[in-house]
Specification:
Layout (H helix, E strand, L loop, with lengths): L1 H26 L6 E5 L3 H7 L4 H21 L4 E5 L10 H18 L5 H4 L2 E6 L7 H14 L5 E6 L4 H18 L9 H7 L1 H4 L7 E4 L19 E4 L9 H22 L1
Parallel strand pairs: 1-2, 1-5, 2-4, 3-4, 5-6
Helix pairs in contact: 2-3, 3-4, 4-6, 7-8
The protein binds farnesyl diphosphate and magnesium ion.
The site of farnesyl diphosphate has 18 residues, from helix 2, helix 3 and helix 4.
Protein name: Alkyl transferase
InterPro entries: UPP_synth-like, UPP_synth-like_CS, UPP_synth-like_sf
Family: Belongs to the UPP synthase family.
Length: 268
């Protein structure tokens, strides 16, 4: 028993040392300002590991916290995560309520004093049609956003319930309202106007540098379609989200650094 505990302690120590070693090396190169995750594969992970679907989602949250911390340690300024699409409301009621319960519980946990958002000075923005969430979750969202409102070292966008088409439609509607209120004869809306009204931009997010989707599926599923338009590096990993970790992330960051360095060479 004592021997097993000692072995686990040693393994943890070695893992932490290796982790810090790799993080320090990566941090010496260019670091993306904004990384987004499409956290896919929770149910397949649950089936593979003979777990209930809900457990797949709660293990998914553990992975989210892990990756958020890795990004913050690397000094990534903004992390976005697709936690719930508007379409996910169509899933079985049992699964939807489990996800809502998880969200409510974790919003409280994440914003507690001394927890990760507090420790790294992160402002939380819950992005999407939050009015579709149950009242108790909306309350938790407002409370969590209020609690982190004054943090200014980094941003965490939890997209829930979100779709890009809804975000773009809402942005266009705001532009029309603004133009009408200026009494212009014919509302003239530019790309810049729409861009300024996107939920991510209203929350102060920088342009999206890397979008990662896990579980081997190669589509965007209505996530950050506008934000992906310019210079975003799209990465598809075959790992199911709950298993995704630093060692899946390292090659993605190295790819980003190679790209930045090769551009610097081209320009010079
Ligand atoms: C996609 O996998 C994942 C989701 C629909 C939910 C993502 C949510 C979490 C990781 C927890 C997030 C935290 C909060 C605060 C709610 P899937 O269900 O589509 O799995 P599959 O692709 O294997 O079918
Ligand atoms: Mg899926």
């Amino acid at each position: 028993m004592l021997l097993r505990r000692g072995w686990t302690w040693l393994q943890d120590k070695i893992y932490t040392k290796a982790r810090n070693f790799f993080l320090n090396i990566l941090a010496a190169g260019p670091i993306p300002k904004h990384v987004a995750f499409v956290m896919d594969g929770n149910r397949r992970y649950a089936r593979l590991n003979r777990k209930a679907i809900q457990e797949g989602h709660s293990d998914g949250f553990v992975a989210l916290r892990r990756m958020l911390e890795v990004c913050l340690q690397l000094n990534v300024k903004c992390v976005s995560a697709y936690a719930f699409s508007i379409e996910t409301f169509k899933r079985p009621e049992e699964e939807v309520s489990a996800l809502m319960k998880l969200a409510e519980e974790k919003l409280v946990e994440l914003t507690e004093n001394g927890d990760i958002l507090d420790e790294y000075g992160v402002r939380l923005n819950v992005i999407g049609k939050t009015e579709l969430l149950p009242e108790s979750v909306q309350k938790a969202v407002r409370r969590a956003e209020d609690r982190t409102r004054h943090n200014n070292r980094a941003i965490f966008n939890l997209c829930m319930p979100y779709t890009s088409r809804d975000e773009i439609t809402t942005a266009v509607q705001s532009c029309i309202r603004n133009a009408n209120s200026r009494d212009s004869e014919e509302p003239y809306i530019t790309e810049k106007d729409i861009d300024a009204q996107l939920l991510t931009n209203l929350g102060g997010s920088p342009p999206l540098d890397i979008l990662i989707r896990t579980s081997g599926v190669k589509r965007l599923s209505d996530f950050m379609l506008w934000q992906c338009c310019e210079d975003t590096q799209l990465q598809f990993s075959s790992t199911y989200w709950p298993d995704f970790g630093l060692f899946d992330f390292i090659p993605i960051i190295l790819d980003y650094q190679r790209k930045v360095w090769s551009r610097r060479i081209e320009v010079s």
